[in-house]
Amino acid sequence: MGSEEADDPVVQEVDVYLSKQLADHLYLFQYPVRPAHMPYDDVSHLAARIKPEQQKVELELSVNTDSPNYAKSKGEHYAHDVDGACTSLEDGAQRYYNSDKLDKQMLVSTPVGVSPSTFVAGIYKDGELHLTPLKGVIQLRPSFQYLDRIDAKHGRDSGAGGDSGDMPQDEDAKPVMVRFAPVETEEAKARRMASYEFVQSRRSKESWVNVQHHPIGDQFSSAECEAMFAQQTEEVPGFHMTSEDYLKQLIPKTVMTDTEKPAMPTNVLSMTELKHMTLGDQVRALLKNAKVIRFSQLLTLLPKGSDPTAMLRSLQQVALLVQGCWVVKSEVLYPEDTFSAFSGVPAQVLCRCRDYIMWHFTQNRFLVRKDIAAVIKMPTEDVKDILEQMARPKVNRGWEFLFDFDTEFVGRHPEIVQRQSMLWDALFQQMSKVLNISKADLKMAANAAANANSPPKRRRTTSRTRTKSGGTSELSDTDIVTETGARRCTLSGTADNKSKDPMNDITSEPSKSVSASHSTTSSTEPSGVNVSDDLKRELLLFVRDRMHSRFVMSVADLRQQLTLKLAQCPPGHILGTGVSDRLLEQTLQQIDAIEFPARQPGGEIVYAVVSVGGDHERLRGIVVDMLKETGRLKSAALRKRMEEEFVDNDVPSEADMKKIMKDYCSTKGGIWYLKGQMV
């Protein structure tokens, strides 16, 4: 005998029998809102009925009106409202309660959604285990039908006030106009079959079957329990089955049956079916149903404990990032070989036009449907249907994207944002070739969207230039149409070009940020430009906030974060007036950021901060000092350094050490490298 078998000896062998005498009539009743120490065994059952096909059960149980916990005044009040003032059955009215008090309650079954094929009821007796399969699992909860009766009674009484029998008995015959019902479409039929009235009408067709309740210990109950024991009428052949086949027979795979499922509209998603899908299918189903969703909303809909990394991976396969939110891909909504329900346009054309609309929303919050339709040349119904999936109409402004910009997601996942931006650039290159969009058309579309955001205002502007000697000379007065948020105008010129047209001295360039209302200028700062104190103060707050949350960043990373921030700011924000790389470097020095030079050709200079507050500032200093020496470190070396620097009872925990290392480093092959400088 092996060691494993010796540790787990067989204590007893039991014969197992399968009884099928009650297999078609045995149900498991559950009472989820009833405490376990208060069963209904001792409660008098007044009536019971069942609908076998629907497995719907109703039980009438008596209520102890003499209990000290029973409110007699309330019970009499409800009984009077239900039965009225009738005192006996001779009044011609059928009483709901047997007395003048609320003396009974109703338990009604609700569907469980669990297949009973894997459940059995067992009885162990005389060293034998007898199993009986279950017909169904039913949960019973209290029902408040008496409240519905009160509402129905009051409504009937109030509506019958004018029907006093004064209507004439004989009326003249009147012609009747016969109308034929229109032909029902497939979509209308699906909606009708999924409606509450249709489902209730189907359920009401099955009649109730009255049954009699027998308590535990009753003679009839004991006789029925005997049927749960298998009858040994013949010799059972030998058991010839492998362990794998036995397990398959014992626990069969769950099969989702489509019987009794009405046709559902396209905008209805069953959360019960969602639980049985894989994570990728769940994400696909949710995106296909919602069309547009925030990542935080998706987290609340998916099961708890789902891997966020796997969720993001699945999300990028079925959706595209638009203003920090996720919009389902067009090919998911419009599969190949399908057509528009409005105009019959093929799916390939629908996908291309929908992608063009989505791309516009990556550039601006608003768009005008007329301008979009002029480019993609689609039927009005299809364009409106696509817009309603991801936008809402705004008076005098066109269509606005459905959700606000998701700053939280963009700030936490910059690498995904950058990857999606590159993907959009590639998609637009493909669309521009197919749709024959020229650069001029592109600029006109961008200007139209910008004008929808803020209409142009005409104002009188006097342009001046500064000479080399520091003096100023007035060129001329001219009327300039300023398109707020669409372009950034720069006045240039010298005193020598007074004769030139002033409009030739105005150069405009489209904004390159995500929002068309901001620009961050070039990376070089012109000499002689005075930076305002307000800009310095606002930039200091921005850089400190980003560095204290990310700990290690380069100037390029800060500029990318600045672009994302400006996308959320209103037009004319102080940070959009011009921030150079030199100004960013000066601000980093003000917050005592430590500079790490590039360790390989073409690398970036990165900055790290230590003084960010908290309980582990000393540990952060040690990590940064070790990285300053070689640009990398090992866990063992850091642990040894910690033991030397800290007293025994003050040494940070292993979890704290790992956390600080993740703040500053990326790991590869067991070695921790400074972020942005991994070899």
TrEMBL record:
Residues 511-527 have a biased composition (Low complexity). It comes from Ridgeia piscesae. Residues 497-678 form the DNA-directed RNA polymerase III subunit RPC5 C-terminal domain. One of its GO terms (cellular component) is RNA polymerase III complex. This is DNA-directed RNA polymerase III subunit RPC5 C-terminal domain-containing protein. Residues 448-530 are annotated as: Disordered. It comes from the Eukaryota. InterPro entries: RNA_pol_III_Rpc5, RPC5_C. One of its GO terms (biological process) is tRNA transcription by RNA polymerase III. Residues 456-467 have a biased composition (Basic residues). PANTHER family: DNA-DIRECTED RNA POLYMERASE III SUBUNIT RPC5, DNA-DIRECTED RNA POLYMERASES III 80 KDA POLYPEPTIDE RNA POLYMERASE III SUBUNIT 5. Pfam families: RPC5 (PF04801), RPC5_C (PF19725).
